[in-house]
Amino acid sequence: MRPRTRVTALAALAAAVVVTLVGCGGPPDQSDLGRKALQNLSPLEKSVLADKVVTLAELKQASQVYVDCVTRAGATVTPGEGDPGYIGPSSFGLEWSSADDDQMERKTSACLAQVNAIEDVWVLQHEASEADKEVAEQRFVGCARSAGLPVQDGEDWTDVARAAVSKLDDSGYYGRSSGSPALPSGGVDVSALGACVDEVTQKTSGALPGLAQALATLDPSAP
Amino acid sequence: MSFRTARVRGVAAAAAVATATLLVTAQAGDALADANGCTSAPGYTGALNCVGILGSGLQVDSAQSRYQPGVSPWPQQLCNRVHLFQFRRYGYATSDTKKLVANGCIFGLLPDYLDWANPGRMSDGSSFCARSSNSQTGYTLTPYACKTITY
Lengths: 223, 151
Known about the structure:
The structure holds two protein chains of two kinds.
Chain A: H1 3-25, H2 33-37, H3 43-48, H4 56-73, E1 76-78, E2 93-97, H5 101-113, H6 116-126, H7 130-146, H8 157-170, H9 190-203, H10 211-216
Antiparallel strand pairs in A: 1-2
Helix pairs in contact in A: 4-5, 7-8, 7-9, 8-9
Chain B: H1 8-16, E1 22-25, E2 38-40, E3 48-56, E4 59-68, E5 77-87, E6 96-107, E7 112-121, E8 127-133, E9 145-149
Antiparallel strand pairs in B: 1-9, 2-3, 3-4, 4-7, 5-6, 5-8, 8-9
């Protein structure tokens, strides 16, 4: 190999390594999502979060501001899309003509950005305790075992969750809406296993990582 | 507690509803969906974006947009979840878009899906599509995964 060719080849190799590393690296660490959520607060968010507590009345106010904003932007609002009884901004679905997709997605996202820190803090105030989450995780392990998934004694719940999701994928559970109903697969009741995954997902859901710390140090008077 | 996960309803509905006649397809400019209605999606390696429909003929009783996280080096949260459906209702010449948002975060190796209850009757031959974005996609919307509605 000639020197110049070798240099070119090495450069190409280095570039390939970089591309591979970037490609495999995936998204950046998400531990500061809570801090980012409290940056660039809207006037309403600053006002509501001045005492670092969101009341139900303030959550309703945030929802109304959001609904007014998206309606002005041209979206049709469909209420009641969230959990029964929940009235936060995310409980409202939106519809618009697909011809306006890019513009409407931008506009409605901007509307949500005016209030979503309020909803984020509401979620934080109502998230399950770590102890309750651990109970849900252990309950999930038992649930998966009862559904027929092979589970080792003492196996970490995240490994069981990985195996469960993999089993559901392989069995066509998620794709069943386009075809057959969920059937037992290899001794596993995939419908029951799917219910286990749904339950642990709901019970271990929570606030943005780092939000509690960011809220504790928030200075709403800061520009 | 009122976190928006909207999963349990989907499971119950899935067991009960008859199968629609659906073909997996791809919309111009979007990746080809696989037999499960999925396309590859931004995020960790192997991430998928999927659309699911329950119903019969042109009637769609329930639709689902699902983001399946890829394999991350360590478990990550999945936050700031947005799901979009694109569809053409019966008797309409143009498509509409529906946007649903979920608050909070879920554990990031679990699939994130939102169900849309009772979308209604769709146009014969129209595409019914779903896409999503979240913290693992870097807030980039996935390509649409689509199915074709037919009698």
